[in-house]
Amino acid sequence: MFLKKRLKGLKKYLLFLSVLFCFKALPQAGEFFINNYLPKEYNAGNTNFGIVQNKEGLIFSANSAGVLIYDGYSWRTIKLNKNEPTVTSISISKDNEIFIGCDNGDFGIFNRDPRGIYRFFSFQDNLPGNFKPTEPIKFIYPLKDKIYFLSEEVLIEYAKGEFKTFTPVNSFHIRPLIICDHIFVEDIDNNFLVLSSGVLKPVIKSEELAANKFYFTYKLSNSLYAIGFRGLGIYTANYNAANPELTEFKQVPNAPCNQELIDAEIVNGFQLSNGNYVVTS
After folding, report:
1. 254-257: which pairs have CB atoms within 8 A and are 24 or more residues apart?
2. Within 13 Å and on the Cβ side, how many CA atoms surround 129?
3. Calpha distance 166→133 (Å, rounded)
4. Of 14, 27, 40, 154, which is most buried, counting CB atoms within 10 Å of its CB?
5. pLDDT tens, position by position, 97-151
């Protein structure tokens, strides 16, 4: 019954086209002011892949022309290097460090140099061995004291100046599943995998699910998570904290929103502060 009540909230969903919006919110209670910026106004590419804000209030956007920086008054574009790659992902750590990934497989930290100018410092040449990523880095996630970079060809772990790489049998789905202190990745048409104790381990009985891609998750309880799969609808993951490779995935056949999720080509989802859930298509 608890799960059914929570899943009913998913019927209150909105389908959005992909748009960029930047907002400035007043600190006092009241309505938000929303400003929409066109590419001709911020003078860069028309595709934005992610957006973060640092502790100083600056807004950074991963753009096809580089990294956009907005200070509340004006925009500027920082091109990464002479190759001018598209920035396909961006994230910020609890230490206020900004990390970015690019469409050519390059990745690293975006930080101020000694002169106070924002620059891109690549990590690509720091990877162990001769491996150099070439596929777009589509997802970056800080988890505890580590930063994870994900593309179809590799999962990269960065911690305290050290790097580890994990490769799939086939190819990774570029959306990881984060459950508590563990990162799960989907090796398409092979298996779900979980990074545990420095090893990428297969999750039991997840082979059939690996033929379909998931696009959102939300927490139901300390150990139970709902997951939205394109073409399948809602599943639950019963998380095993001690042995995450024993986490169980089960279908919820009568979830009220299943048919809508199966019919729509979902690409993302997130929970609002009022408890409703937004699913994008």
Report:
1. 254/4, 255/7, 255/10, 256/7, 256/8, 256/10, 256/11, 257/7, 257/10, 257/11, 257/13, 257/233
2. 7
3. 11
4. 154
5. 999 999 999 999 999 988 988 999 999 999 988 889 999 999 999 998 999 999 9
